[in-house]
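Q: Protein A?
A:
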Amino acid sequence: MMTEDFDAGLESAVPVWAVFGDLMAGLLGAFVLILVCALGIQLELATQLESEVKQRQAETQRLQTLEKALATPLAAGRVTLTNGRIGINGSVLFALNSAELQPEGRQLLKSLTAPLTAYLQSRNEILMVSGFTDDRQVRDGNRRFADNWELSAQRALTVTRVMIEEGIPSALIFAAAFGSEQAVASNADAEGRSKNRRVEMAPTPRPSASPAKPRE
């Protein structure tokens, strides 16, 4: 009788240990899975951080190279360099409401052409020349320009053409117009309006050629 009871208890205990073993195996598998996922996320974050650090280092090096190329005009206070944008006060280049380049402005552009050309060619970049105005409307007596958009566009084109004449390859430069948009100072006073009447040059990455679409 006792032997039968012992055998019955042993038989009932076996499934319990089997279930316990399966449970522990499942928990171990889940732990391993969580650990693998955590390691994967950590590796991805480390790779992303390394990529961001390299990008910042490359941008810092780019700005330092550009600053070095423009050391002379920067030291003379003839241009400014802010976040990779080369700024020239509009009064240096043009008279009020005019797109005709002044002699002083031409000399300044001539001094910028050689270092900018060397910089662009060494980095495979192109130069965007942007024209800006204040918010005052073009005078009624000045019929050459319909509005500030047209005035800023013509000024950008004038600077672009002069720099091409001075030696920068035409493939390395293009013009853009912003009118009175993107002001850097208040237009409420003469000083602020003077700062907004400006031309900026910004080296930008050369656009990659898109693959040609097959003809249908």
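Q: Protein B?
A:
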Amino acid sequence: MAFSLLLSTSPSPPRLTALRLRAPSKPSLNSNPIPFKSFVLSNPNPPTSLRLIRRVCARGTSIGDAGSGENASDEASVGEDSAAFQLEEQSFVSWVYFTGILGVVLLALNVLWIDPSTGFGKAFIDAVSGISESHEVVMLILIFIFALVHSGLASLRDAGEKLVGERAFRVLFAGISLPLAVSTIVYFINHRYDGTQLWQVQGVSGIHELVWVSNFISFFFLYPSTFNLLEVAAVDKPKMHLWETGIMRITRHPQMVGQVMWCLAHTLWIGNSVVVAASVGLIAHHLFGVWNGDRRLAIRYGEAFEALKSRTSIIPFAAILEGRQKLPKDYYKEFIRLPYLTITALTLGAYFAHPLMQASSFQLHW
């Protein structure tokens, strides 16, 4: 979520690679596709010709090192490898398009929403602020409006893509969600100290370090689809992914976990009623997203998602502690990738850019 940006099987001889067939990209809403591999693994009495394939699938291969022979996996992967990025597979033209689209979007956002002389952002904030004099209430209303639009459009994605296409629906989704997210962010920055002070721990030794580390870690729980920037900008055709590696082994809903960490850290640091209201609203929105996200993936991927769900967890590390998720010995390789290095740089940049963001928000007088 944009609000967060302030502060998202290893082999055993013989060396055979696990089958990685995926569900169709655009199944019917009423269908429950069963990947061929899932059928092979779950069918108790497969034809003779499929028995060897089932043994191969059950052995699997390591994402990080397909030939090491060190890690044994009892489960075959049904999902995708998250945060995978191969430089040699990138298209220079696609990234030129992405840069151009990003520039156009930022220009349109400034003219149509942010600029006080031409945009509607100030009028929107004034209208919502007119509902109540309480900054806490206004904060919650802004989050509710964003959540209603964001989750509502996400729920309509299948129908919307069939109606107007994947790219057009992504443009519509971003075009409505982004201005509302910016308004919520700016209002929070401008009014974060306007509420009733509930506690004051900024002078307590170690609190700043705790908040900083918690906030830093929270950015590594960004949902893996965020890494697919070409899809986010609709340069590549947007897809609904079924991720399985990396952060997904720790929690099936990393964005929710990251947002909760961010909220708890900032609530502890600021300690007033406005930030409590913001945290309650954001956490409630992401908890709803947990249910809604699982529901949508179940509709799209059927038994493939159920297989993934059985070996992952919502609560971080729960599936690992219960033995349902087995980490490869080279698990660290799933994080030593360019997207995570980029997240590290952007997180550090956002921290040092706090004064700039605060000054820019104050100039809008929202």
